[in-house]
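Batch manifest, entry 17 of 40.
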Amino acid sequence: MNQYTGSKTVGLIIGLFTFVFALELLTPPDYVFGYLYIGPILLASSYLSRKTTFYTTALACGLTLINIWFPGFESVKPPTFASRIIAILALIVTGILSDRIRLDQQTLLQQRGKLEAQENLARVREDFTSTLTHDLKTPLLGAIETLKAFRGGSFGRVDPVQDRVLATMVRSHQTTLEMVETLLDVYRNDNEGLRLNLAPVDLSDVAEDVAATMTSLAASRRVHISITCGASDFRQFLGVNGDRLQLHRVFTNLLANAINHSPRGSRVELVLESGSSYQTVKVMDRGGGVNGEEVSKLFERFYQGESDAEGTLCARLAKGSGLGLYLSRQIVEAHGGTIWAENRRPTGAVFAFRLPSATLGKNY
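Output type: structure tokens
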């Protein structure tokens, strides 16, 4: 509050005190006008300091009490004295409550200021991260193409040992590039929303396509991928209205998560279940399972799990940024579906999602 407003408030309080006190002097003590001092007390509490509010309340109580004997129209009766005491108590309660409200408002303003500062800081961090990850794509793409050129013999003959090293470097750079692109997509989806190119899609076809592309990763982990259609031994059509590219990413994220957490020599099962209302996809592994207390957190942004007292993982500790499952949740929910995780008996985990069914066109 500026000095002009403070002076104006003080003048208004003095004017109200003068007016009320004049009414008290011109009327018998039976007429209690001391309640009107509530106005100056509220003004002091709203615009002046706590100390000023205290003095204003004390003055109002004193003037209300003095009017019992001054200017002395008649002797004081017990009911008159009781009315004055009640008025004084009302003024005291008003001063206390207004001071309490003032403190609560100050606390709320401080908390709001902290929240706004935190939101601004988070926005700056996200802008910085988004810009940084965007700028990282160019050098990563350049490094990948250069390594591929090395493998192709553009810079001289490459022996088998060098070729294996270069292949490992290419995979590493490609993984990093995928993480960067995932991070960019997550920030873009959070800020702008996920834009879908909807069309009839067969989830069985997408599952087979993704399984074929994940063969190399599964082979490196010595994990076998199998696709089954529920209780049927034959391929089924799981029609949905969706964005094929985005659904491809969901399959890739869940399948890669299962492969990375499966013991060597085990199996990852991709189970497709067709229904009249929903099409369901389940990715089942034989890994360490899921901690029940952390299931709800697995699909949060950057969540990577925690370790228990013995140092074993209590959740699916993702290798990387922890954004794959969060992005999968964004995509599935944008399609009007749900995604979840649960334990598999006797060991392992199930990551699944379901989408509303749709009838595929004849020309599909």
